[in-house]
Design goal:
This protein is α+β, with helices and mostly antiparallel strands. Helices cover about 45% and strands about 20% of the residues.
């Protein structure tokens, strides 16, 4: 079995139990390998440290455990997926400055960001593949972190697609 680290964020129904009750329910459901965060109202985040055969099976099992334990819990995001330069540096164990220099280098073009603005964001899976292929880079992601980020990328796209479909079904503007 491989070791996977990832985080899941959920929105909660307004009538959800107290944070202590949620934590107890999550533990009983098998999420004893997670650190639970309940800072924001009507939301919960869990950081898992799980052993499984694949990242996808680990993450899907965790999602199922949370949604069974807490009625009305809805997956918002799987991490790591969209990341900034500091996140990338932390995930591969180097400095932000090192990643910034790689991103600015024109000889070996860095992957294009998925979101631009004051803080550009990349899908870690794309950057991780680029780092693995780039011979000059000493700090590389682990195969497990690439597998997690690939699964996170896919599941987050599914979550966003479902949100879009709900907006269309509710006749809400999508622009």
């Amino acid at each position: 079995m491989k070791h996977y680290e990832y985080s899941l964020s959920f929105s909660l129904a307004k009538a959800t139990k107290t944070s202590e009750e949620c934590t107890d329910l999550l533990f009983e459901a098998g999420c004893d390998d997670a650190v639970v965060g309940v800072g924001a109202a009507n939301s919960i985040a869990l950081t898992f440290d799980r052993h499984s055969d694949t990242a996808e099976s680990a993450i899907r099992q965790s999602i199922a455990q949370v949604t069974m334990a807490i009625a009305g819990a809805e997956l918002l995001e799987v991490k790591p997926d969209l990341v900034g330069l500091s996140d990338i540096a932390e995930l591969v164990g180097c400095s932000r400055q090192n990643i910034r220099q790689l991103a600015a280098d024109t000889k070996t073009p860095f992957p294009q960001p998925s979101a631009t603005g004051s803080v550009p964001l990349w899908h870690f899976y794309e950057v991780g593949l680029w780092l693995m292929d780039n011979k000059r880079v000493k700090s590389k992601p682990t195969l497990e972190s690439l597998e997690v980020s690939k699964t996170a990328f896919k599941l987050n796209m599914d979550v966003q697609h479902q949100r879009f479909e709900r907006c269309v079904a509710d006749n809400k503007p999508t622009y």
